[in-house]
Amino acid sequence: MTDTELSAVLRRVGLTSAEPPSVAALTRLHQAFVERVPYETVEIQLGRVTSLDPAESLARILRGRGGYCFHLNGALAEVLRALGYHVTRHLGGVQMTPDAEPVINRHHLVLTVRDLPDSEDAWLVDAGLGDGLHSPLPLREGSYRQGPFTFRLRPSWIAPGGWRLEHDPRGSLHAMDFAPGPAGMPDFAERHVHLSTSPDSGFVRTFGVQRTDASGWDTLRALTLTRTEDTKKKTVLETPAEWFEALADVYGLTFEPDERDVLWRKAYEQHEAHVNPAVDPSS
């Protein structure tokens, strides 16, 4: 990554200059990234399978878009390396509900940062959970409060040497485990194709965008916009004007006319299928 590219990415997330590695600088970068780069599945809804190449993910982010964990954490790893951090990618997996089995199935890419000059800890860095961490966490067992939410870190019992992040109960998932060893982007290629194209994939079935800030989460699924803080506030965006206004104002996402037509139609049909499952929304 060139200095010009790095400066452009930092401007994209609202930072004015590069800082040398430290806990405070890492925290500022993580917070800025998750606040301004949305977790989104727009390209999947448009029927376009994206590359896992971090350079392409960074280019898409600079165009005002985001992505999901493979894109977001893949790109963030390159930014961190360019800033001088020691970054490792890890294989992860998400446990959606308490009743589900914990897994490390390569459905999630996780980052850790080590050797910070002002910390003996390794740090969990994860911009790819959607409604997830606002700040990085030291890899030490315990509970961590961020805004209205509480997360818990503990050693993973399915991956010796790995770690488990237990989500706040208001989140969209129950927990995430990751393996201790390093991973490369090709390790996620098969799962990326599945998540992007399979009819069983939630990314294919439902339009989704999320972001995190210091006081809560913003989640848009189909036509329902939810703001989660101490409580949840849900709003159904019933017109294209309301829907695209929210996408622009909350997530910074804007679209070409042909993209708008496709995205609104899909989100509307998904919403109708959810609220009226016996009715065919296309009829």
TrEMBL record:
Keywords: Transferase. This is Arylamine N-acetyltransferase. It comes from the Bacteria. Pfam families: Acetyltransf_2. InterPro entries: Arylamine_N-AcTrfase, Papain-like_cys_pep_sf. Coiled coil: none annotated. GO terms for molecular function: acetyltransferase activity. Gene3D superfamilies: Arylamine N-acetyltransferase (3.30.2140.10), Cysteine proteinases (2.40.128.150). Belongs to the arylamine N-acetyltransferase family. It comes from Saccharothrix tamanrassetensis.
